[in-house]
Amino acid sequence: MDEEVKIIDTNTRNEQIKKFFINNMKNLIIGFSIILVVILGYLLMKEVKDRKKIKLANQFNIAIINFKTEDKKVTVDQLTKLINKNDTTYSPLALYFLIDNNLIDNRDEINSLFDELIIETSLDEEIKNLITYKKALFNSDFVSENDLLQILDPIINSESIWKSHSLYLIAEYFYSKNQKEKAKEFFNQIMSLSNANTDIKVESKNRLNRDFGE
Mean pLDDT across the stretch 117-140? Predict the structure, then answer.
């Protein structure tokens, strides 16, 4: 008797499953089609993205390889175009190469390229903070106190890993201007940070002890 009941239950369940598929065939086909399209679309986008990355890598490498043989302007044009592609890897590398090799004399042009990365490129937050810090470092010998603070404001008002670097740069800026009380204030801020860079914290402590008698 129990065996017959099990057979009936199994047949009933199979019939219900069969009816479910028959009654919902259209919806199931649409559902599977959507999933298939999404998967294919993702794979296609990944392929396009990978090819674009390879193309940008080739453009960067060619510009670097030709640097010593090509006219300076050619290298500047190639790397500037690469920066304006707003790629998260090769756009920053292109700007660093231009700065490290002093290929652009115009500071406004360099700052415009910094802003292209900071504002227009979808960078990881800490990468963006690093580039902002580099912009401040690049300008620190030329700009006013307010301009330097304005550049670094997004970092010093955050918990970024680059905050201690930024505070140290400001402290050194004020010290170089013989504004020692302001410099001391920023050295002390570094000492109070829980995530300050170890070397910068040690150097700040040494500066406070040596130059301010603390």
Answer: 96
